[in-house]
């Protein structure tokens, strides 16, 4: 019993330490990469570490071990404080943008479908949505092949909201694909009445940054053209994405009328959107290039993937010193102006893959230009917090809460 109590108490303390610490300033690039899954576990399982710490402390009391008691209580307190900060943020990020009565703007038929609180011990089950895999939404010009997406539609009996959420996955413009740990999120968004289009786009080395962005705009055009079929209002399309997908989502939303950033065949087609969601987005490619002075996974003894800098240099014809105009052209920070679609920007305060300060500054600049920009910085959360253990993690559930309410507002409130 004494050994078990010590194990539980010190496990809670260690995970509390990972929860409280940001890895990159402390560890080398290699160790930051190796320890990131531990950090994600610390954040995602914070409720468990709180319980484990309390149980360990009780064992310590029973066996007369003050060190075990202290270790367990400290671990539990760190986890508990993290949960409190996630569940009850000091300010409501929607109030500054939409006003104190922002919930009143949400359509009455959508309110009962939304999460009632930012965290619950286990998310309730939702009806099974209609799911269709590998739907062709466009063909790459000159015989480049088909572009595919997955479609999520509301479950039978759920009245469509009229909104479509077009999602662009992350992966550093070179890795991953659609259907990337997002099913629990999309199931719940579909249960709220939304149609979700999970998009696969070409990546390095198949194309350059312009080609990637063109694919994203083709996805918007396809959804607008097929809106009636899915019960979607073509004026209620929101584009979103995470990490590299966040950069693409912001560019897609904010350059609908930019001739150089639109495929020739779509220059007379409406690709505007109702709103945009950027989850830990890359907003400044020059800053990101400098920040990522190592490839997060570029270690030959672990996995063979291209370095982030190599990817950007190939996508943009060189480094920022060689091709500064292209780095600026494809950076969302270069396209801030008044009267842009409303934005929801979310990032973890401990993100070690995407720098936090530029995202914070980007949100502030959008606001100064008179745009509606909801900025949510989740304490102690890492990169990918929204898709890791989403049914239990306070960070993931808080992200789902904010995303759900933002989409409901976009489906309800006129600009």
Give a brief outline of the structure:
This protein is 41% helix and 13% strand.
The helix-strand sequence is: HHHHHEEEHEHHEHEHHHEHEH
CATH fold naming of the largest domain: Rossmann fold
**Secondary structure: number of strands:** 8
Determine the mean pLDDT: 93
- Rg for CA atoms: 22 Å
CATH domain class name of the largest domain: Alpha Beta
Largest sheet, in brief, is:
8 strands, mixed
CATH architecture classification name of the largest domain: 3-Layer(aba) Sandwich
Tally of discrete structural domains: 2
Annotated CATH homologous superfamily of the largest domain: Alpha/Beta hydrolase fold, catalytic domain
Task: Give the CA-based shape.
Answer: globular
Termini gap: 62 Å
* Poorly predicted residue ranges: 293-303
Order of strands side by side in the largest beta sheet? 1-2-4-3-5-6-7-8
Helix/sheet category: alpha/beta
The tally of helices reads 14
As a percent range, the share of strand residues is: 5-15%
- How helical, in percent, are the residues? 40-55%
Q: How would you describe this structure to a colleague?
A:
Helices cover 41% and strands 13% of the residues. With 415 residues, the chain is α/β, with parallel strands linked by helices. The protein folds into 2 domains: 2-87; 95-410, Rossmann fold. It has an 8-stranded mixed β-sheet with strand order 1-2-4-3-5-6-7-8, sandwiched between helices.
Task: For this entry, give a set of tags.
single chain; 415 residues; alpha/beta; Rossmann fold; 14 helices
Tell me the layout of helices and strands.
Layout: H1 2-20, H2 29-44, H3 46-63, H4 66-87, H5 95-98, E1 130-140, E2 145-153, E3 164-168, H6 183-191, E4 195-199, H7 209-225, H8 227-230, E5 237-242, H9 244-254, E6 275-279, H10 285-291, H11 308-315, H12 324-329, E7 343-348, H13 356-368, E8 373-378, H14 394-410
Parallel strand pairs: 3-4, 3-5, 5-6, 6-7, 7-8
Antiparallel strand pairs: 1-2, 2-4
Helix pairs in contact: 1-2, 1-3, 1-4, 3-4, 7-9
